[in-house]
Amino acid sequence: MQKEKEALKQEFKEFYKQEIVPILKKYEKGRGMDVSTFKNFFIPFGLIFFFAFLSAYFGSLNNFLLAKLFLLSAFGSFVYIFIALSKSQNPNVKKTKTSSSVSYSFTVDLNYEKPLKEKLAQGFINIFGCKFSWTKELDKADDNKKIEDKLKTLNIFPKFGIIRFDDVITGLYNDVYIQIVELSTGLRLFDVICLTILLIPFWGMFSVASGKGNNGLAFFICVFFIIFMFFVLRIAKINLFNSSIKGLTVTFKFPKKFKGHTFIIEKAITSAKLHLKDIGKYQTVNLESPEFNEKFKVYSNDQIEARYLLTTAFMQRFEEIKMAFEAKYIRAEFKDGELNMLMGVDKDLFKMGSFFEESSYHTFLQVFEEIYSVLYLTTYFKLDENTGL
Questions:
Q1: Which of 248, 242, 243, 264 is nearest to 342 (CA)?
Q2: What number of other Cβ atoms are within 10 A of residue 310's Cβ?
Q3: Which pLDDT value is given to residue 342?
Q4: Do the Cβ atoms of 383 and 308 come closer than 8 Å?
Q5: How far does CA 82 lie from the centroid of its chain?
Q6: What SS3 state is found at 139?
Q7: Which terminus of the chain is less hemmed in, N or C, by CB atoms within 10 Å?
């Protein structure tokens, strides 16, 4: 590293005290008010739909007592929201008053972390003395497509349908070009919940139509439901049955030129659904370390170059990096003058804040450690030297 870690940590402490603390106080105050208002608004709002659905369902069964009870519960939830918003001191709650009515609206950005990173990310990067840009998600469709297109060419990356980018850090360190992308693929729990919620209206409409003996309408609802499920299953096939990824990709532009294509994947269930492209063109490489061979499969179309790249020192460093990031697995691919690494990491990396969690000194110290670990890879793998790995 250009600076020793202890010196860097001291700079971080000063940065936290002078830059982070004043910003954090303001944001934590606003976050606390938004969380309180969010709970007072969205939980009762969800209950309104739940009670209304139950009211319609029991009404279709001619159980009018329960139907009226749940309808009254829905109205009670609405009244609670109105009273809570009218008494709120949150500046994000807006009151609109006309001659005949009064209404309230509440706007909140659940991506609480984004404005924090917009203010603090560059300061973090400056601590390490490198030329980097750090964005929270990608704003340009072209940038998204470039990364997606590259990932699709890599054997270490599985097929994917839905892909989401979180932190993207790009720039030069020790005269080595680095791109760090935190990403995830496949359906999240939130996506599954949303799809499940979308099924509720079908059930409700079908129950009402059947209860009233309207077979034509019930048949139409069934047909529409089948079409809807066809598209849902198509999405699920791509995003559930292929390997989902949550983790980090790190790309290094190699100063050492190589012509071959070599990649390393783990011998574990996590690699079972990888679709290796043109695998017949590659040979299995057995390296000097029996322990490494037990844990990883190495393929290359150039045995000599693969052994030059994958030295004993590299193998040791490769496994240590996995431990440093507490990764479930680690993969690497040497291709087209680049080293691409993929680490499967469950936690949210480079996290500065969350809507539902308070940020503290420990939060930002963790970010410091993660950035240090990634940038240290240039020294760790000696990428800034013109000698072997």
A1: 248
A2: 24
A3: 93
A4: no
A5: 35
A6: coil
A7: N
User: Taking Cα atoms as reference points, which of 340, 303, 344 lies closest to residue 322?
Assistant: 344
Q: What SS3 class is residue 154?
A: coil
Residue listed under structure tokens 């918003």: 85
Count CB-CB contacts under 10 A for residue 266: 19
Tell me the pLDDT tens digit for each residue of 37-87: 888 888 888 888 888 888 888 887 888 888 889 889 989 988 888 888 788
C-alpha distance from residue 229 to each of 25, 36, 81, 188, 206 (Å) = 47, 37, 35, 18, 15
CA distance 82 to 105: 10
- The Cα–Cα gap between 212 and 207 comes to 9
Tens of pLDDT, residue by residue over 319-351, are: 888 888 889 999 999 988 889 999 999 888 888
Using one digit for the tens of pLDDT, what is the confidence trace for 254-275?
Answer: 766 778 899 999 988 777 667 7
- Distance CA(73)–CA(90), nearest Å, equals 26
Residue 371, C-beta contacts closer than 8 angstroms, at least 6 positions apart: 124, 125, 128, 169, 350
Residue 252 CA: distances (Å) to CA of 11, 177, 291, 336: 26, 6, 26, 11
Q: Is 170 left (phi over 0), alpha (psi -120 to 50) or beta?
A: beta
Strands 131-136 and 176-185: unpaired
CB-CB contact of 321 with 375 (8 Å)? no
Query: Could you give the CA distance from residue 316 to residue 313 in angstroms, rounded to a whole number?
Result: 5
Q: Which residues of 339-373 are buried (b: 16+ CB within 10 A; e: fewer)?
A: bbbbbbbeeebbbbbeeeeebeeebbebbbebbbe
What is the rounded CA–CA span in Å between residue 389 and residue 387? 7
- Residue range 139-173, pLDDT digits in tens: 555 577 788 888 888 989 887 777 888 888 888 88
Round to whole Å and give the CA distance between 192 and 184: 15
| Number of alpha carbons in the 13 Å side-chain half-sphere of residue 121 | 20
Q: Can you list the pairs that 370-373 forms with residues at least 24 positions away whose Cβ atoms lie under 8 Å?
A: 371/124, 371/125, 371/128, 371/169, 372/1, 372/5, 372/8, 372/128, 373/321, 373/324, 373/325
- Of 87, 103, 147, 157, give the one whose Cα is nearest residue 342: 157
pTM more than 0.85: no
